Fold:
Amino acid sequence: MMGKQLVKDKSIVVPGEVVAEGRDFILGPGVRREGNQIVASRVGLIHFEGKFIRLIALSGRYIPRKDDVIIGRIKEILINGWLVDTESAYPAMLNLRDAVTEYVAKGSDLTRFFDFNDYIVCKIINVTPQMFVDVTTKGPGLKKLVGGRIIKVNPNKVPRIIGKKGSMLNMIKQATGCNIIVGQNGVIWIKSTDPKMELIAVKAIKTVEEESHVPGLTEKIHAYLEKETGKKIRLQKE
Structure:
């Protein structure tokens, strides 16, 4: 049976929308196969290039907001602080006064606090109309991250990954024993003494990101975690 294109090329589609039918299509990013159907995984612009189908996501990058707690990466060391990559179009400034409590002499080596490419949990304390962003590492849970692994997800999917009252994230933590911090900018830190458990957590989080619109997702993640970890896990309905 020949494949059939069901939507126009370069049209906007939504998650779960059927864009084509047939087994002879080659799938690119943003689409997946469900039986004989090919469906969109996210909101985006669908492209048909012969038998190749791909989707360009329309959901934009993270936009910094005051009071967001994010995971940033040190990209530059300045005289009075650090420039932080916020995984957005707008880097943030971490001033010395917002990072350390001790006295730091002018010209000191700031790498003893934060070095190039260090990841930090920080809070956005100011965003100007011109999108100049200031962050702090002073406060509960704000710190430099040591070890572990970093993954990145669509920031629009962060609420689903956390779940209602933290239910989804807590289930993944309970099952894997991993320490997990989710930044509101879509950067996630995962750490465990067992690399296998880190990988299980990564796959669970990525599945939530990709299938956030799918009914029964909580039950699917619960079953996956029980199977992979061999543990009985309490299912908290969302």
Summary: The mean pLDDT is 91.
